[in-house]
Amino acid sequence: MAPRKLAAGNWKMNGDLAALAEIDALVTAHPAPGCEVVICPPAMLLHPMKARAGAVIALGGQDCHANRSGAHTGDIAAGQLKDAGATYVILGHSERRADHGETDAMVAAKAAAAHAAGLTAIICVGETESQRDGDETLTVIASQLDGSIPEGATAANTVIAYEPVWAIGTGRTPTTDQIAEVHALMRERLAGKVQDAAQVRLLYGGSVKPGNAAEIFAVPDVDGALVGGASLKAIDFGPIIAALAAA
Ligand code: PEP
């Protein structure tokens, strides 16, 4: 059986209470049968968004701390995300790795904390442009996967997002062959680490738009997308969800 399709929206540091109207629009447009949708807004929007999203759209955080609580000013514990209505959390996004020096080991510790709190971790990996140009993509992805996935990861508590750093927010995307090559490597690599590797959802992320979604979702082993800019407006994210449901 193919893994359940997942369309995940990463709002990053965008959105406010007025933006909750986008969730109302998505709830009306969704559900697309067989396709799960999750929005990861800034943390302060989780609780009010939950009231609008109901059971139709799942919610996620964009990061969590590896500890359960304590003196970590500005950080959020996985349990607090869960308490606010999240069932997912994005971890190891390239912006976190670049802006906050997050290493694979830190991502793995955060993912273990997410699992302990009952959250599904969306673990991001991806090569930089110079790594792609240097023909290092597969080595980099294998190493990030090995280092970022904690013990105890399963298809139920872990999703992997392949996000080439150079494709995020740039309007550029890899070729479908390049996406297929990385997703095949990820599926194979997971087999050594996760019991039910065939069921782990593998997302592609990086400039997914309504105009390229169908082509990307036709790639083998692409079970959905992690979408940044085009997830902010229902008018863009809705067609992406529809393309995934139709794939
Ligand atoms: C992202 O930030 O995870 C992302 C994929 O962004 P965008 O869709 O805007 O490229």
Verbal overview:
- The protein is α/β, with parallel strands linked by helices.
- The chain has a single domain, classed as Aldolase class I (TIM Barrel, Alpha-Beta Barrel).
- The protein is 38% helix and 16% strand.
- It has ten helices and eight strands.
- Strands 1-2-3-4-5-6-7-8 form an eight-stranded parallel β-barrel, surrounded by five helices.
- Strand 7, helix 9 and strand 8 form a beta-alpha-beta unit.
- Helix 1 runs parallel beside helix 2.
- The two termini are 15 Å apart.
- The model has no long low-confidence stretch (mean pLDDT 95).
- The chain binds phosphoenolpyruvate (PEP).
- Phosphoenolpyruvate binds next to strand 8.
- The site of phosphoenolpyruvate (PEP) has 13 residues, from strand 8.
Write a compact overview of the structure shown.
With 247 residues, the protein is an alpha/beta fold. It contains 10 helices and 8 strands. Strand 1 (5-10), helix 1 (20-29) and strand 2 (35-40) form a beta-alpha-beta unit.
The CATH superfamily is Aldolase class I
The whole-angstrom Rg is 17 Å
Q: What small-molecule ligands were found?
A: phosphoenolpyruvate
CATH architecture: Alpha-Beta Barrel
Terminal-residue CA separation: 15 Å
Please give the share of residues in helix: 25-40%
Task: From the 3D structure, determine the CATH topology.
Answer: TIM Barrel
Largest sheet: 8 strands, parallel, barrel
Gross morphology is globular
CATH class: Alpha Beta
- Poorly predicted regions: none
Please indicate the count of domains.
Answer: 1
Q: What integer is the average pLDDT?
A: 95
Indicate the structural class.
alpha/beta
Number of helices: 10
Order of neighbouring strands in the sheet with most strands: 1-2-3-4-5-6-7-8
